[in-house]
Amino acid sequence: MSPSAANAHAPMPGAEGLAEPLRSRWSPSVFDDRHRLGADELAELLHAAQWSPSAGNTQPWAFFVAERGNATHRVVVEHLSRGNSGWVPRASVVLVAAVQVEPDAEGNGGGDATLYDLGQAAAHVTLQARAMGLHAHQFAGFDTDAVHAALGVPAHYRVLTGIAIGVRGSHDEVDERTSAREDRVRVRKPLESFVFDGVWGTPWTAPGADRPAGSAEGAAP
Ligand SMILES: Cc1cc2nc3c(=O)[nH]c(=O)nc-3n(C[C@H](O)[C@H](O)[C@H](O)COP(=O)(O)O)c2cc1C
Questions:
Q1: Which residue has the higher pLDDT, 15 or 18?
Q2: At 106, which CATH number?
C-alpha cells in the first residue's frame, strides 16, 4: 500500500488518547476537485466559528465563502503563493478568514486577543469539518493585502488565512509536487520542550512519572 493510501488517518504518536475528531485531524493537500459542499454543510462549518469562544465575546472574526469556481474563489486563487497554488484550488471551498485588528469608528474592539480569537474560531471550523467527514487545511501563503483590497475588507480588519475544506482526492490526479506535499512526515516538538514546571525551561513532569510526559516526534503520514 502506498504511503498515501495508508494515510486515511495520519498517525500521531503520543496522541492516541485524544478524542475524535482531534485524533484524526490533519492537513491533507490532495483534494477531490469534483466534490461540492451542500448549503447545509457550509452553514454547519460557519456555525462552528460562530459558536467558538472569544475574549469578551467580541467575535472579532469575519469570513468569505470562496466556493470552488465562484468570484471570491477566483480572487483567492489568483493570489496564492506558488507552494499553495497546486493544491488549494482543488478544495471544495476556501473560507477566507479576516479579523478586526484596530478599533472600529466607535472605538470598539481590535485588542490584543483578536488574533487568538480568530485562531480559535478557525480551529473550531477544522474540527467541525473533520466531524462531518471532511478535511480542512489552513494556509497563510497568499497575498493577503491583495485579497484584502479585492474583497473590500475595511481597514480595521486584516485578512489573515484561508481554510481549504473538502474531501480527499486521488494522487493520480495531481502533480508530483502536490502528491509529495501530502506525504510529508508530520512531526511535533516533544512536550518537554514547551511545557514547563515552575521555571522557564524546566520540563514539566507528569505526577508519578520518572521522566517528562510524552512526546510526539516523527509521526509519519
Ligand atoms: C496559520 C497557519 C498557516 C498555514 N499556512 C500554510 C500554508 O501556507 N501552506 C501549507 O501547505 N500549509 C499551511 N499550514 C498548515 C501547516 O503546515 C500544518 O498545519 C502543519 O504542518 C501541521 O500539520 P497537520 O495540520 O497535518 O497536523 C498552515 C497552518 C496554519 C495554522
A1: 18
A2: 3.40.109.10
124: cell is 473550531
Distances in whole angstroms, Cα of residue 63 to Cα of each of 19, 37, 48, 88, 133: 27, 16, 12, 17, 22
**Which amino acid, 220?**
A
Number of domains, the chain: 2
Say if ligand 1 is within 6 A of residue 85 CB: no
pTM > 0.85: yes
Residues 151 and 93 reside in one and the same domain: yes
Q: Evaluate: CB of 26 within 6 angstroms of ligand 1.
A: yes
Average pLDDT, the chain: 90
Q: How many angstroms separate the alpha carbon of residue 27 from the centre of ligand 1?
A: 7
Domain membership flag for residue 91: yes
Nearest-CA residue for ligand 1 atom 4 is: 139
Instruction: Determine the structural domain holding residue 101 and report its residue range.
Output: 31-172
91 and 50 housed in the same domain: yes
Better-scored residue on pLDDT, 17 or 96: 96
The verdict on 164 and 190 lying in the same domain is no
User: How is residue 89 written as a grid cell?
Assistant: 484550488
Write out pLDDT tens, residues 158-172.
Answer: 999 999 999 999 999
Alpha carbon distance 138, 171 (integer Å): 20
